[in-house]
Amino acid sequence: VMSILLHGDAAFAGQGVVYETFHLSDLPSYTTNGTIHVVVNNQIGFTTDPRMARSSPYPTDVARVVNAPIFHVNADDPEAVMYVCSVAAEWRNTFNKDVVVDLVCYRRRGHNEMDEPMFTQPLMYKQIHKQVPVLKKYADKLIADGTVTLQEFEEEIAKYDKICEEAYTRSKDKKILHIKHWLDSPWPGFFNADGEPKSMSCPPTGISEELLTHIGNVASSVPVEDFKIHSGLSRILKARSEMTQNRLVDWALAEYMAFGSVLKEGIHVRLSGQDVERGTF
């Protein structure tokens, strides 16, 4: 399994989650053993000029925080892109560290159907309209080299257009939305054969009072004998023990009982988050 993340240039530079995940990238319990970040750098986050969007020269500079190698490649050169991607994959497989591929390209159309980029980037979009699309540019090169014939190229385009047209036609006949197909790992038993969720009623998950009392007593005791515990903590444990005896539950004890009952069934529980170890949760 290889982890690949696709980013936009403005998001890569501007979203805090990118910086946060880079700092998680090499932590023992969080690492994916190297993620390949592909940045589609079309130099326009919505309609923001890069000079107004970030303070660094490249959107990918945020990856330098973990010394990830960053490959800037001209996306108009498909062979260079393929070469760089295979080097990135090799790096990731050899060193199990993050690596970034910065596809330096452009966006031919606006942000959406309503957006006319000529309003905000007139000079840039005059250049873009003159630009030969990468598919034509590469096809012309391959035909000139004699690698493919014009007929082969046109057949390939026709084949792809047909796939798109057929899918578009089929989409009009769809009456049912299959949720199952959208999930990367559908939970077994959660959906019926048609891909629709089963009834959302939950099976009873209650446990006996005897088991709750047992968990409450364990949660309010100290596991080590003759251990001198902080007086503030012993007060909390004493109050918790009294609650269990009086058949009362507060939020923290309810959580303990929930985790405890799952553990009693032999299911591993892992609490994650920066305050867990300090016991703030």
From TrEMBL:
GO MF, one annotated term: thiamine pyrophosphate binding
Any one annotated GO CC term: oxoglutarate dehydrogenase complex
Assigned keywords, A-Z: Oxidoreductase, Thiamine pyrophosphate, Transit peptide
Signal peptide start-end: none
Domain Dehydrogenase E1 component: 2-179
InterPro entries from the UniProt entry: 2oxoglutarate_DH_E1, DH_E1, THDP-binding
GO biological process annotation, one example: tricarboxylic acid cycle
Names of required cofactors: thiamine diphosphate
SUPFAM superfamilies in the cross-refs: Thiamin diphosphate-binding fold (THDP-binding)
Oxidoreductase keyword on record: yes
One Pfam match: E1_dh
Recorded family membership: Belongs to the alpha-ketoglutarate dehydrogenase family.
PANTHER family named in the record: 2-OXOGLUTARATE DEHYDROGENASE (PTHR23152), 2-OXOGLUTARATE DEHYDROGENASE-LIKE, MITOCHONDRIAL (PTHR23152:SF5)
Name of this protein: OGDHL protein
